[in-house]
Amino acid sequence: MLFRILDPQTKANQFWRDFDRLNDELTRSILDSQFGSSSHFPPVNVYTKEDEALVTCLLPGMETDQIEINVKDNMLSLHGKKKAEELAEGTEVHRREIFHGEFHRTLELPFRVNQEQVSAKYSNGVLSIHLPRREEDKPKKVSISVG
Amino acid sequence: MNALTKENKQELIDKTESKDSKPQVRVYSPNVDVYETEDAILFRVEMPGVDETSVEITIEKDQLQLEGKFQISEEGRGQVRLAEYKEGNYFRRFTIGKAINSEKAVAKMKNGILELSLPKMEPKKTKIEIQRT
Q1: Nearest CA to CA, how far is A146 from chain B (Å)?
Q2: pTM to 2 decimal places
């Protein structure tokens, strides 16, 4: 005669696994319907000083040659393509949430940029772009002569 | 990559809290890929802005917990014009259904992605002799 042993701990684990998965899926679908999928729209922070702007962007898992930065006047555009990870034969996929594909982002800066002096750095999945202000657009101090 | 929506989610949570409550640290739920090979379970976790020294990986029984601190120094950066992400903590927890050898786990950070490999426990082989009566 065969006995099927029911382990309550295993049952509970299975329940929480299912609960986590459903909760994740529900949260994702609600956020996507409310805000639109941000997968193709990497988040950006913009800081400005008198003589330059700093743009930082969260782009995890990229190689520098996959990111394209273009600057024209006061427009900055970021473009890139993230390749899907190549999996060895026989690899089973349990969960795939990381975005792969193309992204594009265009930002308008408050001043025109000196294209020749733009510099960019990529560290820990964060892209930082320094955009110096064009010389002729910098605010000029006018000295007042005493009459 | 999905931090914007996570942030919006956090803002929704913030809005539902009373005005008197203290500001809480933002908790982002990072995107994760989970693969399984013959020998190991592999995790890839998006944690942009996190230094490898501020990542914490805990394995207790069948619970895997992944944490990372994301800090931004805004000093000297100038005036904030647009802030679509803010500093906070990444946090994600998983239940691992298979027996793994946590002592042989290997983790590394590359370009804001945490790569974690959990080798599976080798099945114990015990040969049982049949007694002769």
Answers
A1: 34
A2: 0.73
DSSP per residue, B74-111: -TTS-EEEEES---EEEEEEEE--S-B-GGG-EEEEET
> Does the beta-carbon distance from A124 to B111 stay under 8 Å?
yes
Closest-CA residue of chain B to A46:
B82
Does ipTM top 0.95?
Answer: no
Pick the residue from chain A with its C-alpha nearest to B44: A98
Residue with structure tokens 């899926």? A25
CA distance B18 to B84: 23
- Contacts of A21-26 with CB under 8 Å at 24 or more apart are A24/B29
Closest CA to A56 of A65, A74, A69: A69
* Span B60-110, pLDDT tens digits: 988 999 999 998 888 889 999 999 999 999 999 999 888 888 889 999 999
